[in-house]
Amino acid sequence: MAGDENREPLPGSGSLPFRAGFAQLAATLLAACGLAVPAAGAPKTTAPDQPYRIDVTVTDSSISIERDRFTAKDGTTRWPRGALIDFIVKNVGKRPHVARFALVSQHYFSQYEARKTSTTVGKTPIRPGQVRHLAVNFYFRGSFAFELMAGSRPISTAKIVIF
User: Fold this and answer.
1) pTM
2) What is the distance between the alpha carbons of residues 124 and 96, in angstroms, rounded to a whole number?
3) Residue 36, SS3?
């Protein structure tokens, strides 16, 4: 058409100045995204920290958990979600005992979780003076308990709350 040679090219028409500006903008955005990636790698709230070593004492009539910095003023044993606890269970009684660790509150298990709500500390009763370890990663909130068992029923309970 007559007179078209005096018009400026429209953006997006493939002109050289537009392409150069677009390339600079794209390079700037990519660099900004590259700088933002390390910030997205923040630690997860449920990632376990270093394990806490907690003593659990079993007597002939009771089971108790030592107090620590998370124990509430009313004596409730509490830990934050994501805590990795190494329970050191020691029988200071005169007879062998079975200690059981149980989930007390309701939990909806995913297809990837074992649907197990309790476990005994070891396969055999804990002999007097013997020490056993039970490592637990509390990756969800809820209520748990250590139970001193007499046959199939608990005779003493130490409650745990994960907040």
Assistant:
1) 0.68
2) 9
3) helix
